[in-house]
Design brief:
Elements lengths: L1 H10 L4 H5 L3 H27 L8 H10 L5 H19 L6 H11 L1 H16 L3
Helix pairs in contact: 1-3, 3-4, 3-5, 4-5
């Protein structure tokens, strides 16, 4: 997750115009952010299973279990739902992505990955057996 986010940060330009002209590099940014989001949901699923929080039917259930058991806050739940929506857009509507909206989302929300990591580390440090 971290490696992908760092690569996106490194290559994400400051202006939308630059982003639009990136060609394959822009495609790589989309792929790396997709991968980072999938890593987040893999971590949620692993925690859900290891902590025996219940059997999730889908990714959202894993997140709900983490909130219900105090592992993440509801604010993080909303951020994760937004991530999942963005990932679905990138994966399923790739040819029709609004690059301007995607660029804004990337600029404004890359920090959510660090917040997620921090929340999980804090929980694990507090609840280490």
């Amino acid at each position: 997750m971290e490696e992908s986010v760092l690569l996106v940060k490194k290559h994400l330009p400051e202006s939308f115009e630059e982003f639009l002209d990136m060609g394959l590099l822009k495609d790589g940014i989309y792929k790396r952010i997709e991968y980072a989001i999938e890593n987040v949901f893999d971590i949620c699923a692993i925690l859900n299973a290891d902590l025996k929080l219940g059997i999730p039917g889908e990714d959202e259930d894993s997140i709900i279990h983490l909130v219900t058991h105090g592992i993440i806050r509801s604010e993080m739940y909303e951020k994760l739902r937004t991530m999942k929506g963005f990932r679905n857009l990138v994966v399923h509507r790739y040819g029709r992505i609004n690059d301007e909206i995607a660029f804004t989302i990337l600029q404004e929300n890359l920090g959510d990955f660090a917040l997620f990591k921090q929340a999980i580390i804090e929980y694990l440090n507090t609840n280490a057996d």
